[in-house]
Amino acid sequence: MKITNLFNVGLIALAGLTFACGGGEKTTETTEVAVVAPEPVKEISLEEKYQNDPIYIKGLEKLKASDCTSCHMVERKIVGPSYAEVAAKYESTEENVNMLAAKVIAGGVGVWGEIAMPPHAALSEEDAKDMVRYVLLLKK
Ligand code: HEC
Predict the structure, then answer these.
(1) Which of 62, 83, 94, 112 makes an SS bond possible with 138, Cβ 3.0 to 4.6 Å?
(2) Residue 112 lies in a domain
(3) Any idea what the Cα angle at residue 116 is, between residues 59 and 58, rounded to 5°?
(4) What CA–CA distance (Å, rounded) separates 132 from 134?
(5) Total structural domains in the chain?
(6) Is 112 in the pocket of ligand 1 (CB under 6 A)?
(7) Looking at ligand 1, which residue's alpha carbon is closest to its atom 2?
(8) What does the pLDDT read at residue 35?
(9) pLDDT in tens, 11-69
(10) Which structural domain range is residue 7 located in?
(11) Mutation test residue for ligand 1: of 71, 79, 129, 133, the one with most atoms within 8 Å of CB
């Protein structure tokens, strides 16, 4: 009995010693820490975010060949809604791609306001769909 008790006391004393030592070391560590200014948070644009996506590359190429950019920007509303707004409103499903491609070809008004999108009758269904897939990719 006595021996076990003594052993326990010894253990506690040892634990106390380790703790004291650790505490002492900590204070020396803090003095050595250099103050580093936080990195500024860099916001990446949607163009940067999706630039390597094949849907992005293909759609953008076709879009550039048309007049879309005169009324639409990626992240800012001009004459028409921004692509980011359109992407936030519609999931990129086959159904939505078909519906929006048909609207690009036929033109239309009333979803985003009083200004109408003119028809793009010369566009093929396939090209319009590729453009819309690109638009719906641009989610924040
Ligand atoms: C002359 C200006 C103009 C041009 C050019 C234009 N748009 Fe639009 N677009 C608009 C406007 C305005 C709206 C909003 C229509 C509405 O409120 O229903 C719109 C809406 C859209 C929508 C969302 C439709 C909906 O029902 O939510 C898509 C997608 C779109 N445009 C894609 C395109 C593409 C792709 C092109 C190029 C082929 C293009 N637009 C060219 C003005 C334009």
Answers:
(1) 83
(2) yes
(3) 0
(4) 5
(5) 2
(6) yes
(7) 71
(8) 77
(9) 444 444 455 555 455 555 566 777 788 887 788 999 999 999 999 999 999 999 999 99
(10) 1-36
(11) 71
